Amino acid sequence: MFYQLEFEKPLTEIDDRIREMERKLDRGGVAGAPPGVTPEAVALAPDASSVRTELDRLQAERTETLTRIYANLRPWEVVRVARHPNRPQTRDYIGAICRDFCELHGDRRYGDDPAIVTGFGRIGPHKCLVVGHQKGKDTTEKIRCHFGCAHPEGYRKALAKMRLAAKYRVPIVTLVDTPGAYPGLGAEQRGQAEAIAVNLMEMSRLETPIVSIVIGEGGSGGALGLAVADRVAMLRNSWYSVISPEGCAAILWKQANEQTNAQAADALKLTASDNLELGIVDAVIEEPAGAAHRDPKGAASAIERWVVAQLDELVGKSNETLLQERYDRFRKLGAYEELAAEAGEDTPSPSVG
Amino acid sequence: MTQAATRTWADLKRDDGKKSAIPEGLWLRCPSCAQMIYRRQMEANLHVCPECGHHYRIGALERVRQLTDPGSFQAMFEGLMPTDPLKFRDLKTYESRVRAEQIRTGRNDAAVAGVGFIKGRQAAICCLDLTFMMGSMGSVVGETLTRTIEHATKENLPLVVVSCSGGARMQESGLSLMQMAKTSAALARYDDAGGLFISVLTDPTTGGVTASFAMLGDVIIAEPKALIGFAGPRVIKQTIRQDLPEGFQRSEFLLEKGLVDRVVPRHELRTELSRLIDYAGK
User: Of the candidates B88, B179, B248, which has its C-beta nearest A334's C-beta?
Assistant: First the structure.
């Protein structure tokens, strides 16, 4: 059965009626159309045609309701969509967008983290290196991928392949979809923080165009570890923030439940529009009606169009321009006020020495 | 900066949940060896227990005082003030939390930066301040540090950053996260310019601070028994549902795993820094 989110309940009634109409049509089809009679002939029957009209009307109503629901999602609901079990993941998008994908494995140091997929592929007219978090589709894959929580070897594998791409100035496309980097014994022992930190530093100076898209969850450092790029976009129903709503609720509201999670999701300004407004991302990629999980192909082509448009612009830039603009992009982020030197009197200056 | 501030904050925020890291009064009981020690003596001993060597947590100004030659430190970028870009509100507003911290500590935010001399060697220095919102990195900390790095790049100075932080500041959400990228990118340029960056990790250094500049030192030094990690011990415990091994995520553990270069007691920090600057600095 199709996994349904709570706020999609208004659809249930319409779906029931649609099924009812379809059954009617089927019955009509079976009764009125013995073998050899074309469906067109059945459709011409007055009864069937009125059912058809009703069905069309219902389907239009369904699309409209869906669009309306998804246009007015609360941030916490967006988080739920971003985690939808049927939401397309990195491997789905690679399958849909990349021609001739050639996967590359392993960090040459410790292992091959399945939570991060890396490989060469062609997107539109561009040769690319694609790097993305993979959460896993079935239980076995989910467990292998730690639900998209990468280990240090995942980040190191990503960097190793990105360096390879930069060596030949092959552009890099990263797809971000992680609740966060894995918090565990092995991850800490092998330097999770160092692995992410090095990615941040090195991605800022890789001499090739980099574009990033948050396709689902953009959870904190684990997300940023693949997202230091020339252009960053978010899919409409993805989130990107310094902490998950649950984590934030547990710390600042002292408890994580439906209510506090929703409050934290509001406060964190984690939606695509919020991040666009804050300048953290450069674009929001619209998803098909009712989100990417209803039309993975549609979502994939939207991503493809955006990636190709960005790369068309970026590949022609000199490395000097590219790196300067990438530096400036992150350099300007932050919100603070600056008191003039004279005004500094209000605040005690450190009496040290 | 007052010692009272350090006391209150440390008391409330000890990660083991126990009270009285530095209790009131002339005498105090060391949380490590349980000996009664004379406060003045502990303070004169660089806030290290004279009995067992337990390193007490200290604020940024005390840190600067301990590291730099007397009278040599010139503070910079002090006019940077936090704002509330997201109009963040949990049980309290971010604005009111910041104001309360500013009044309590007399500081604008959680970083002190400037230029000073360490045993006669000039260096750009930035110290995070645990007494201010757990040393968390928001826009002001990120900007202060980035400017310090850029200043060190321009002036060809060695860079010393002393970290102690709970991580990125939640109340600035995505903008805090971006400080990780911003500081790391500035360090890349400093590295390209051939600078020497010594990162000093003190108790505790976790989260987004560890996962950005703190782990990018050309040389990484840790104070003894400091908690250093990406995820906090509680989160890890919840994830793996088993108890953590003794000494996990402490400096000595990181040394054993090859993640830090040296564990250096506070008394030797000045000497070690100047020695490293002589070896590797320009």
Answer: B179
How many Å apart are CA A154 and CA A150, to the nearest integer? 6
E-strand ranges in A124-230 read 126-133, 172-178, 210-219
Domain with CATH 3.90.226.10 in chain B: 9-19+57-279
**Minimal C-alpha gap between B35 and chain A (Å):** 31
**A186 touches A148 (CB < 8 A):** no
Closest CA to A103 of A125, A129, A134, A124: A129
Q: Are B71 and A353 inside 8 Å of each other by CB? A: yes
CATH of domain A80-331: 3.90.226.10
Residues of A in contact with B211 (CB under 8 A): 181, 192-193, 196-197, 200, 221, 225
| Candidate CATH numbers 3.30.450.20, 3.90.226.10, 3.30.1330.80, 3.60.150.10; the one for domain B9-19+57-279 | 3.90.226.10
Residues in chain A: 353
Place of tokens 């793996």: B240
A39-92 pLDDT, tens per residue? 665 555 557 788 888 888 988 999 899 999 999 999 999 999 999 999 999 999
